[in-house]
Specification:
279 residues; globular; two-stranded antiparallel ribbon; disordered N terminus; seven-stranded mixed beta sheet; 17% strand; 11 strands; Rossmann fold
Length: 279
């Protein structure tokens, strides 16, 4: 009887803890309805991140890390974007807005931004209206960079969306000889950057398969891919099986990480931005 009573007390305590945790997580999720778009200075370059919705629940559409709950579109935001904008202005003649900027694809001022960025799109779910807006944005000359998604399942989710957006276009591998890798910094290939939590001088540079959407497949090879228009203009760049954004966000997390990964992240980021703005 004592063992049974003790077990019941532990079950009751566990349920209470789970209830408190669940309420805290629910409170930390964003309220319904979008925030009004922040005004930006269009005389500066604005690194504009896309807000989007994702399918699924815990561990899919959102997750907990570093003491907060993140929606997928928010991965590494705003620190990555602000660190990159600061370095972009340091390393080039581009005058960049230092505060992070985000927009929905359906925001009326989307076309004010020549460049937009998406992160962690493995569970992304775009509405027909959002797909149409992105299709028009790319047709008008806009440029999209998609980063930090890993494995077959996450790539298939992104490719499924792109088939709706650009039904007559298919992705192509961007060769290492492409000018986008030599625009400012001479890079031999797109680098593989792991999230800071998985980076080690004694380990691999790819992330654990268990964190990503199934089927996972191989994570070892970086896939640098693009979508081109009928005239050969590169419209969309995808850095798959790598987390360039974490190299920006975590630049202050130690000299080894900065020198090994952040420097490469900044180099490829600068190359992509300069290429997008000059082509």
């Amino acid at each position: 009887m004592r063992a049974s009573a003790s077990r019941l007390r532990w079950v009751a305590l566990a349920r209470s803890v789970l209830l408190v945790v669940g309420l805290a997580l629910a409170a930390s999720l964003p309220a319904d309805g979008p925030l009004p778009p922040e005004e930006v200075d269009l005389s500066l370059f604005n690194f504009a991140r896309v807000e989007y919705d994702s399918t699924g629940g815990w561990g899919e559409a959102y997750y907990a890390y570093d003491g907060r709950v993140w929606q997928r579109w928010q991965t590494d935001f705003p620190e990555a974007d602000e660190n990159f904008s600061f370095r972009l202005q340091q390393l080039t003649a581009i005058l960049a807005k230092q505060k992070a900027t985000s927009r929905r694809l359906t925001d009326p001022d989307l076309f004010d931004f020549p460049f937009i960025y998406m992160s962690d799109v493995g569970w992304m779910d775009l509405t027909a209206e959002e797909q149409a807006a992105l299709r028009e944005y790319l047709a008008r000359g806009g440029f999209l960079w998609v980063d930090d998604f890993w494995g077959q399942g996450e790539w298939r989710n992104f490719e499924r969306a792109m088939r709706q957006i650009l039904p007559d276009r298919r992705w192509r591998r961007i060769p290492d000889s492409h000018p986008i890798l030599q625009t400012v910094f001479d890079l031999p290939s797109a680098p593989q950057v792991p999230a800071r939590s998985f980076a080690s001088p004694y380990g691999t540079s790819y992330e654990p398969a268990g964190l990503h959407r199934r089927p996972v497949g191989s994570l070892e090879q970086v896939n640098f891919r693009g979508y081109f228009d009928t005239h050969g203009r590169l419209m969309v760049v995808a850095t798959h099986n790598t987390d360039i954004g974490d190299g920006w966000e975590r630049e202050a997390y130690g000299q080894w990480y900065f020198e090994t990964f952040s420097t490469k992240s900044y180099a490829v980021g600068v190359n992509i931005i300069v290429y997008a703005l000059t082509h």
